[in-house]
Design brief:
- With 125 residues, the protein is mainly α.
- It has one domain (3-114).
- It is built from eight helices and no strands.
- The longest helix is centred in the N-terminal third of the chain and has 16 residues, at 18-33.
- The radius of gyration is 14 Å and the shape is globular.
């Protein structure tokens, strides 16, 4: 699949989640400009560390044993952004959307008999 088609395939999943996406974008901008609360900043950083080392991010999933054991294939993508192989979200946005759960949630919804523990959950003050 081409890179453009991969991005277009995200639209149907993204539209119902537009509020979460906007929140992630706003929080990411605030994080970059130093105007986000310390608690929110710390939560986003914690999530990003978790996602960077996760066997299911697009880079790691290409060779990850964990990903292969679950899906029986290696992840392939033409996208250049760091994203979750399960939900497709760019990690910079997903991790900054504080009321979202980890992208494994999407896998669990589609595979109720293979549920996995989420790496992180919605932020509650």
């Amino acid at each position: 699949m081409s890179k453009v088609l991969e991005y277009l395939a995200l639209i149907p999943k993204g539209l119902p989640n537009s509020i979460s996406i906007i929140q992630g974008i706003v929080n990411n901008v605030q994080l970059k400009h130093g105007t986000l609360s310390e608690e929110a900043r710390d939560e986003i950083i914690k999530r990003r560390i978790c996602c960077t080392t996760c066997p299911f991010n697009n880079i790691n999933a290409q060779t990850s044993k964990e990903y292969f054991d679950i899906t029986k294939t290696h992840y392939e993508t033409k996208r250049e952004d760091l994203h979750c192989s399960f939900c497709g979200c760019p990690l910079e946005i997903r991790t900054a959307s504080l009321y979202c759960n980890c992208g494994i949630e999407d896998w669990n919804e589609e595979h109720p008999f293979q549920e996995m523990e989420l790496k992180w959950k919605a932020y509650e003050k």
